[in-house]
Known about the structure:
Layout: H1 3-19, H2 32-37, H3 41-46, E1 52-54, H4 61-64, E2 66-68
Antiparallel strand pairs: 1-2
Amino acid sequence: xxxxxxxxxxxxxxxxxxxxxxxxxxxxxxxxxxxxxxxxxxxxxxxxxxxxxxxxxxxxxxxxxxxxx
Length: 69
């Protein structure tokens, strides 16, 4: 998937989560540069927290894709 498509999915997922009354943690929207600048980011990475977006390599996200946070 192209990065622009992944970004669209992340925005839509965040909207869906907020619609149901939940809020993602601040690091959900950090840029790569923000992650690099934070000394505490390694704990987030080591805990494997964050986005997981896949279309299972099929190029059909709208039909069979999945996002997790």
